[in-house]
Amino acid sequence: DAGVIQSPRHEVTEMGQEVTLRCKPISGHDYLFWYRQTMMRGLELLIYFNNNVPIDDSGMPEDRFSAKMPNASFSTLKIQPSEPRDSAVYFCASTLGGAGTQYFGPGTRLLVL
Amino acid sequence: GNSVTQMEGPVTLSEEAFLTINCTYTATGYPSLFWYVQYPGEGLQLLLKATKADDKGSNKGFEATYRKETTSFHLEKGSVQVSDSAVYFCALRALSYNQGGKLIFGQGTELSVKP
Q: Which tens digits make up the pLDDT trace of A12-33?
């Protein structure tokens, strides 16, 4: 299996622009997680899905952030409008079952100028 | 609430030195415990895990024992190599109806091993 795939790997944008991050989980996995990693706050869970349904979005920082999972093989995390403080590495992870091992993608490094 | 505390880094060691990275946790019930490793520019990879008290997880020479009495899960390796240089994350997972197995991570400990 190719593992969890994320795109783009790097994104540089200007403040106010819309940013869309993409994730393809491992085939057959039924949980998908979005994390954000920063020096100041470490690794934070933003939202997770089970069978394409959002279960817990309490980590989403504010209304500028939204996430969707239209099908079992694709999820997006959108920031609109983006701000410099959104600069971070965003990771997607997937697992089979709530007790399964989480497999992480390589991350998207976002820089908002 | 659930939380994980790791010793602060960076930790710098010489090759073949003994490594300990401390991790303590706070959780209700009986969480599963994990160590993840992040190499530069990459995502996190599971290093080892333990799912119940007194379990020992081990992989690639690393070990950690789930100590419920001290709520700890310290990571150890007897002889580190330059290739072990990375950031190490301790994490817990407390399964419940409304938590669905989400991981709670510590802040990470950077390890640098010099030749």
A: 999 999 999 999 999 999 999 9
